[in-house]
Design brief:
- It holds the Pfam family Trans_reg_C.
- Keywords: DNA-binding.
- InterPro entries: OmpR/PhoB-type_DNA-bd, Sig_transdc_resp-reg_C-effctor, WH-like_DNA-bd_sf.
- With 304 residues, the protein is α+β, with helices and mostly antiparallel strands.
- It folds into 2 domains: 116 residues, no CATH class; 117 residues, Winged helix-like DNA-binding domain superfamily/Winged helix DNA-binding domain (Arc Repressor Mutant, subunit A).
- Helix content is 40%, strand content 20%.
- It has 6 helices and 12 strands.
- The strands form 3 sheets. The protein has a 5-stranded antiparallel sheet, with helices on one face.
- A hairpin with a 4-residue loop joins strand 7 and strand 8.
- Helix 1 crosses helix 2, helix 4 packs across helix 5 and helix 4 crosses helix 6.
- The radius of gyration is 24 Å and the shape is flat.
Length: 304
């Protein structure tokens, strides 16, 4: 009887200690997420202020004060533009400012009137790759007070648990979650290859042909038709991953691990956003098509 009671107490102590460790991990994860959100807001603030400053300079205004950037929510930022600016200059200047801050999220841009909040102009970041230019380009802009607002696409799709109630989760579920993470990492460990490694189709200069298009990994460029696209670091890594495995289905988890794992926090939405960018760049390439495999991942089909 005493032996059984002692064993039960020992097991209870082990379970309590493990739950305590799990709780600390959860708190640490939440702290890291909050810190990441703060850093993103700071970078978005700087990018928007730089854009407003350059817009005024392009319009010959070097004296007006740049007002503070207002954060409307976790992903939306706004700055007041009381003096006329050239809307045609906005897309490229904003793109450059975001790249300087290493912000790679997708976004929507709207220009609203200060007095009533009516939308006057606006575009989506994918419009930057359109031949005809961004939406509302070339329209007459009257001198007035405007609010330049940028809404970033959220990378956090995970539902948040109620604060302070994590210990109510069943112990078995916690163990199952940990077991799945370990199994998932082990399953992919031997499948992940260095993304920078040259492929059988790449020469010493790391160039590869995708149909009639040419992808240069080192210089991060994609020449498709008569257009040369300058890729971001993540876009180049993702395209290189597809190029190494033509006509093969790549699981979403494998793509995330190969392209985004070095960021520490892996976000599923990134895959869809970046695949959409690559599709846009390869829109005029009939021999290459990136297709979604429902519930699994993506496949780059290369036709001969």
């Amino acid at each position: 009887m005493r032996l059984a009671l002692s064993q039960a107490l020992m097991n209870f102590g082990k379970i309590s200690f493990l739950m305590f460790v799990i709780g600390l991990c959860i708190l640490k994860t939440e702290a890291l997420a909050n810190n990441e959100n703060f850093r993103f807001a700071e970078k978005a603030n700087l990018a928007l202020r730089r854009t407003a400053h350059l817009l005024l300079l392009k319009n010959g205004d070097s004296l007006s004060t740049i007002p503070p950037v207002k954060q409307i929510d976790a992903n939306t930022f706004s700055i007041r533009m009381e003096h006329l600016f050239d809307y045609e200059q906005l897309p490229e200047l904003l793109k450059q400012s975001l790249q300087m801050q290493h912000i790679e999220r997708g976004y929507n841009v709207t220009v609203l009137k200060c007095d009533n909040g009516e939308v006057q102009l606006g575009y989506n970041f994918l419009d930057l790759n359109r031949k005809e230019g961004v939406t509302c380009g070339g329209r007459t802009q009257k001198e007035d007070c405007y609010r330049l607002q940028v809404s970033f696409i959220s990378e956090n799709e995970e539902p948040k648990t109620a604060s302070g109630n994590w210990w109510l989760l069943p112990f078995g579920s916690a163990l199952a979650g940990l077991g799945f993470i370990v199994w998932n990492r082990t399953r992919h460990r031997n499948n992940v290859l260095p993304i920078q490694a040259p492929t059988a189709n790449m020469g010493n200069d790391s160039k590869t042909s995708l149909g009639s298009s040419v992808f240069d990994l080192i210089n991060q460029t994609l020449i498709s038709g008569s257009v040369t696209h300058q890729l971001t670091f993540r876009e180049a890594k993702l395209l290189a991953l597809f190029a190494r495995s033509p006509n093969q289905v790549l699981e979403r988890d494998f793509i995330l691990k190969s392209v985004w794992e070095d960021e520490g926090v892996i976000v599923g939405r990134s895959v869809d956003v970046f695949v959409s960018r690559l599709r846009k760049m390869l829109a005029n390439e009939p021999a290459v098509k990136i297709t979604a495999v429902h519930g699994v991942g993506y496949k780059m089909e290369v036709f001969s």
